[in-house]
Amino acid sequence: MQALYAQLLVGLINGSFYALLSLGLAVIFGMLNIINFAHGALYMMGAFVAYFLLNNDYLSIGYWPALIVAPIVVGIFGMILERTMLQWLTGLDHLYGLLLTFGIALIVQGVFQNYFGSSGLPYAIPDQLKGGMNLGFMFLPVYRGWVVVFSLIVCIATWFLIEKTRLGAYLRAATENPTLVRAFGINVPRMITLTYGLGVGLAALAGVLSAPINQVRPLMGADLIIVVFAVVVIGGMGSIMGSIITGFALGVIEGLTKYFYPEASNTVVFVLMVLVLLVKPTGLTGRAA
Amino acid sequence: MADEFILETEGLTKEFAGFFAVRDVTLKVRRGSIHALIGPNGAGKTTCFNLLTKFLKPSAGKILYKGQDITAMAPADVARMGLVRSFQISAVFPHMTALENVRVALQRQQGSSFDFWRSKSVLNRFNERARELLNDVGLSEFANTPAVEMPYGRKRALEIATTLALDPEMMLLDEPMAGMGHEDIDKIAALIKRISAKYTILMVEHNLSVVANLSDIITVLTRGQVLAQGHYSELTKDERVKEAYLGAGHG
Amino acid sequence: QDKTIKVGVLTDNSGLYADLGGPGSTLAAQMAIEDSGLAAKGWKVDLISADHQNKPDIGTAIARQWIDVEKIDVFMDVLNSGVALAVNNVVREKNAILIDTGAATSDLTNAQCSPNTIHWVYDTYMLANSTGQALVKAGGDTWYFLTADYAFGHALERDTAAVVVKSGGKVIGSVKHPLNTADFSSFLLQAQASKAKIIGMANAGGDTTNTIKQAAEFGIVAGGQKLAGLLLFITDVHALGLKVAQGLNFTETFYWDLNDGTRAFSKRFSERMKNKAMPSMVQAGVYSGLIHYFKTLEALGGNPHDGAKVVAKMKEMPTDDPLFGQGTIRADGRKLHPAYLFEVKKPEESKGPWDYYKLIGTTPADQAFRPLSDSACPLVKK
Amino acid sequence: MAETATAEAPPKPAAGGNILQVRNLEAWYGESHILHGINFDVNAGEVVTLLGRNGAGKTTTLKSIMGIIGKRTGSVKFNNEDIIRATSDKIARMGIAFCPEERGIFSSLDVRENLLLPPVVRAGGLPLEQIFDLFPNLKERLNSQGTKLSGGEQQMLAIARILRTGASFLMLDEPTEGLAPVIIQQIGHTIARLKKEGFTILLVEQNFRFASTVADRYYVVEHGKIIDGFANADLAANMDKLHTYLGV
Amino acid sequence: MTVLTDDTLPATPRAVRDEMIVFAVMALLLAAVPFSGLYPFFVMQALCFALLACAFNLLIGYGGLLSFGHAMFLGTAGYCSAHALKVWALPPELGILVGIAGAFVLSIVTGYISIRRQGIYFSMITLALSQLLYFIYLQAPFTHGEDGIQGIPQGHMFGVFDLSKPTVLYYVVLVGFLAGFLLIYRIINSPFGEVLKSIRENEQRAISLGYRTDQYKFLAFVLSGTLAGFAGALKVFVAQNASLTDVHWSMSGEVVLMTLVGGLGTIFGPVVGAFAIIAMQQYLAGFGQWVTVIQGSIFVICVLTFRRGVVGEIAHYFRRSL
Ligand SMILES: Nc1ncnc2c1ncn2[C@@H]1O[C@H](COP(=O)(O)OP(=O)(O)OP(=O)(O)O)[C@@H](O)[C@H]1O
Ligand SMILES: Nc1ncnc2c1ncn2[C@@H]1O[C@H](COP(=O)(O)OP(=O)(O)OP(=O)(O)O)[C@@H](O)[C@H]1O
Ligand SMILES: [Mg+2]
Ligand SMILES: [Mg+2]
């Protein structure tokens, strides 16, 4: 029984990564109508930027500033991508955005691999968050606790921004009909660019958070992307809250699977997806595709 | 009497999360008539159509078509019984030619629609009938034009031709004149008049002169309910109809 | 006599294992060609390399084309067991040569052995045998396995468990995780709860490094349990950093800092690598294997372009090179050399970059690999 | 008809500040050349109606002024500033608002959000209460999804939302399409009222009867050109011509 | 889902003639390959993928259904055939049939589950199903996990044609491909294809005309899945192995790529795309670490500059349907 509690808690922690990543993906899908297959690569970039910030002779500024700097750096990179490439895809089928971002992901991953090899780089847990607490039923590393709390805050803040402010309404409207929204006096291209930057920044943030836990490797995001994408679908494409909740829930369900049928823990998300889509054809909270 | 009325509804109701778009509507459409459904915006006309053609499930009530209860049927099956609709927003197959548009409808009745091993040249036997139908609605010259490239009014005409191809017994037309120029309105009105000799027509239309000229009987809907029913001349004198739909200074 | 040779390095240039083999393997092959001095003796040696992207069908496609069109004589590296087994078949069918230095599966010299294939560096049986035996001997007599859920992981676990039991230890549990898992905390918690003295990691690549990293986070090693890598390479240790990797035990058959010979080679190698990396055992194997192959051809006086014939001759001749020392090749195609059990140094023990290992045990060549008596290889006459 | 089409100088507008001046406006959809030199003026405080058959280029004219047609040349002066090169968000912030033919209600927003969507560009827009007076349907359905409204309700919403923004120059593309007579009358009253409050309105209409109740002047568009123009006062005199133009 | 091929032209007699000419040229070129010095093995592989892409294109380009799990049919047929050939020692023609039957059964099951979902949700449910299948194949003993089924005997087709001879094998694969291609062409241009097209164009309208659209989509799905299975069965003879890569999602992705690069909804596009992608994999294999970067750049360039795909752009330029 105790072991089960532990699994649930650990699952929740993983869930916060799923939530953060799928949140960014959902923001980008919801607002730009693009399935951002480069998300995993940008997540990886976030972790690498954190690494540079830690291990550079000139810039050794450590973990905490990286939480802010890495998302900004990667966000700017994302905005450049949006400006130079993605913006030409507005109004086209999802497939093209998917293909383009997939290409971008290959390029980014390839370049990183060329310079840093495939096995990755070391990144240690920041001193302030070292160690752990004994919860009785398990040993909880302080760092993991921090990850959950911090991601929850970021998720809720993003949700609030998108769903509860004017900005969010502009964004959603611009997804549907950018021309008209622009004709209302809103600089849609700039807004879209910033939104992409935001979504990408969230991916980078997840990357920074995961650097001390997972090996900082060029391919660290490559396999994650498909799971994260599944989370977004289960939550209902484009639904922010749906992604957050599904992200955390998936973490927990995966945790339980790891306990009862570990071999299937990477597959359970797809079982879940089939079941959800059979019952609710547009995801848990989704609007029609 | 199933013979007299081709379509009947009893207590038809549709509720959207607490909002009654259609409430307790009892409607009888006489065989061979042109029956108009009018009412202010949001009265529930389109919703009614959607219920009748099964694109929506009624929350309550019963629909009888040719004396048969069709309340629980699937939309395609209703169409197969000869109850066919057009859409408020024009519905054609945009990247097919006008001829092909009509042929798709003709093909359905012939039962070869699942034949994936035969050449589609077997469909050429429908060409003649398709051209006839196009001719009927004045589209002969457009036979080989893709539907996207046709002007708006012609698309509406094409839609009607496609519907006619099914040889339905009853047609539901949702605002067939919307967005049309005067020329086209007259043409389509004449067309409807002509085909009404053979089919029963239930239509929604805001263009009053069209309604006045074409319809045998009019049902006025407001807030999802039947407000009045009668001939145009009667209704224009009805104060409630004036207030709800026609507006002051009318009649 | 024909004095042309074509060498093909078929490896993972762009994926998970690119550090292990990849461009480094090509470099090692290049160095072998240079060091062999064949050019001076009138031989013409060509080298090409390609990326099989870890896909067996791409691997076979390239292999066929190389043999049919490019007339490649010998395939080097070919890491990734799935690809290796596929290429093994093609090479046999077309009578070329495969000197596999990268794949782990011991099937290459067991059920699927071939008169055209030599398995050079290591295999799962050897890893299990060496690490399992040594650790049990050192007191690690209760084991818990973290196993990657695919054939390679299963084999590794099965073989190791057998060795552990044979050596007097006990396996008290195991958990199978899917390939490419990012988070191991659930599994680590289970391993922790089992109270086993040794947690054996029957997985590879990113899975292993993530396990190690997260084990440190959950205080597994600090809590007194020991992590044993069943397939770990120096590149992995480099990637983890000593802070996290310290104290790990595992087996390799090559380390750059073993003796003067390995040091000299590795120094030259690392200078020519883009990121100044030391050679992995896979890369070292490419060098060593080629050197022996060249010697054999010299002994034959020319290249007969007949794979089976050359391999037979290679098996006859004893091997000797600065990297793996003296050794032999068995009838089943297994190259024999000692296996070394290493422990990763603490950060304060390390004198500089790539100074990572302490040698804590050596299994002699004749005991390291699967005995011929257990072999299912049809080439072995019993 | 062809003779009138060559008319170079547009009909002179009545006195009063000239707010919009369109000269030689040409526009393209991709390869197809749709507008071939549109010339007309709108004076402050007027209601001007563009008439013409289906596909004549009325909508395209409005869109070109709004800056949402990719390729356009000529000159469009709004308050004496040339906006032919400006992007549509700039144009909107200069005080031009556009209600498109296809309504453009957003399905991902509810009615309230749809209504509040266009940012207020300057003071002087209608307050919400007044808008609900005009279109009581909307008030009832505030929380439903935008596109769940009936066709006519969507039209009301599309008009309502630009009245809030304070833009004083409104372009309405067939605002009466699909509306019940009672609502059309209401819209007529609204336009009259807006005019009184100083709004300038450029209207595109098929419903000639309706247009005649609100317009000060008319222009007739055919094949991407303005071929005629006259004031409401001269309507009776021009009726015959109009019949030929429009095929009524 | 929006219609992807927004400039599909209606088929006219002229278009049919064009297509026939291109087909004849293609068949002749392919038949000449063994005499051209081109490496036939590469072409065979490309032919298998071309057939797969054509089958996939039938579903998306003409049915408007984007399947993200088409690798499952390829892989399933591959495993079935491989098992039949190696373990049951069936002759090649029966081996192929077993593979096709496997894909057929699978497509009925998965089609039944997925066909009612719309747009991206349809794509995702097919992806999910293929991932479940991947898991099953990873676990099932008969697939030999990541090692795959290796060393599959090629045997004699109909007892006569010795498939271990590259030229014989080549022509067998070519005939298989051409047959599959013609069948797809026929399906597209059949009464059924016509209905399918109308459903893609405007499903609501098709329903209102009395078509039970789910049934048509289902049939299209089964046909596409079964034909993809045919490609998988042929591929077994070429690669002589069946492995997990064929069921992996990235393979499904590759099929999408091939089709897009060649031209979605064009008849010849998938063939061109398959050859392009396979050639890329083969010839880039020598570029060392830059492979992925080059590959990525090609996709990016493709999407940004010729989005209709190679064939799509050509067809558009000449205003023909190809
Ligand atoms: N799916 C839905 N969900 C919620 N409300 C709906 C839905 N469909 C329609 N409604 C509401 O039901 C009412 C009736 O709509 P309907 O489309 O039937 O009107 P209508 O009579 O056709 O009007 P119009 O003449 O403007 O087309 C409207 O108030 C509309 O907002
Ligand atoms: N997106 C488009 N692409 C290509 N051509 C277009 C496009 N939109 C409109 N057209 C063409 O431009 C011409 C003018 O169209 P426009 O919409 O301006 O006409 P209109 O006068 O507003 O007609 P209506 O009364 O039907 O609204 C028409 O011939 C139409 O076919
Ligand atoms: Mg309606
Ligand atoms: Mg218009």
TrEMBL record, chain A:
Q: Which GO terms describe its biological process?
A: amino acid transport
Q: Where in the cell is it found?
A: Cell membrane
Q: Which GO terms describe its cellular component?
A: plasma membrane
Record keywords: rRNA processing included? no
GO MF annotation list:
transmembrane transporter activity
For this UniProt entry, which segments traverse the membrane? 6-27, 34-54, 60-81, 93-112, 143-162, 192-213, 225-253, 260-279
Superkingdom of the source species: Bacteria
What would be one Pfam family of this protein? BPD_transp_2
Q: Which stretches are annotated as coiled coil?
A: none
Q: What is its main location?
A: membrane
What's in the keyword line of the UniProt record? Amino-acid transport, Cell membrane, Membrane, Transmembrane, Transmembrane helix, Transport
Membrane topology of the entry: Multi-pass membrane protein
Say if the entry is tagged with keyword Cytoplasm.
no
In the record, the note on similarity to other proteins reads:
Belongs to the binding-protein-dependent transport system permease family. LivHM subfamily.
Name of protein: Branched-chain amino acid ABC transporter permease
UniProtKB/TrEMBL annotation, chain B:
Q: Which SUPFAM superfamilies match?
A: P-loop containing nucleoside triphosphate hydrolases
Instruction: Give yes or no: UniProt keyword ATP-binding.
Output: yes
Gene Ontology MF terms = ATP binding; ATP hydrolysis activity
Organism superkingdom: Bacteria
Concerning Pfam families, the annotation shows:
ABC_tran
Q: What does this protein do?
A: Involved in beta-(1-->2)glucan export. Transmembrane domains (TMD) form a pore in the inner membrane and the ATP-binding domain (NBD) is responsible for energy generation.
For this entry, the protein name equals ABC transporter ATP-binding protein
Q: What is the lineage of its organism?
A: Bacteria, Pseudomonadati, Pseudomonadota, Alphaproteobacteria, Hyphomicrobiales
From TrEMBL, chain D:
The record's Pfam families line, in alphabetical order, gives: ABC_tran
Q: Which CDD domains match?
A: ABC_TM1139_LivF_branched
Q: Which GO terms describe its molecular function?
A: ATP binding; ATP hydrolysis activity; branched-chain amino acid transmembrane transporter activity
Question: Superkingdom of the source?
Answer: Bacteria
Keyword terms = Amino-acid transport, ATP-binding, Nucleotide-binding, Transport
The ABC transporter domain is annotated at 20-248
Example GO biological process:
L-amino acid transport
Reply yes or no: does the keyword Nucleotide-binding apply: yes
Q: Which family does it belong to?
A: Belongs to the ABC transporter superfamily.
Function, as annotated: Involved in beta-(1-->2)glucan export. Transmembrane domains (TMD) form a pore in the inner membrane and the ATP-binding domain (NBD) is responsible for energy generation.
Q: What is this protein called?
A: ABC transporter ATP-binding protein
Q: What organism is this sequence from?
A: Bradyrhizobium hipponense
Q: What is the lineage of its organism?
A: Bacteria, Pseudomonadati, Pseudomonadota, Alphaproteobacteria, Hyphomicrobiales
UniProtKB/TrEMBL annotation, chain E:
The primary site where this protein sits is membrane
Q: Where does it localize?
A: Cell membrane
Q: How does it sit in the membrane?
A: Multi-pass membrane protein
> What GO cellular component entries does it have?
plasma membrane
List where the protein spans the membrane. 20-42, 49-74, 94-113, 120-137, 168-188, 218-237, 257-280, 287-306
Q: Does the keyword Membrane apply?
A: yes
Q: Which GO terms describe its molecular function?
A: branched-chain amino acid transmembrane transporter activity
Pfam families per the record? Answer: BPD_transp_2 (PF02653)
Q: Which CDD domains match?
A: TM_PBP1_LivM_like
InterPro entries from the entry?
ABC_transp_permease (IPR001851), LivM-like (IPR043428)
Keywords from the UniProt entry: Cell membrane, Membrane, Transmembrane, Transmembrane helix
* PANTHER family on file: ABC TRANSPORTER ATP-BINDING PROTEIN (PTHR30482:SF17), HIGH-AFFINITY BRANCHED-CHAIN AMINO ACID TRANSPORT SYSTEM PERMEASE (PTHR30482)
What protein does this entry describe? Branched-chain amino acid ABC transporter permease
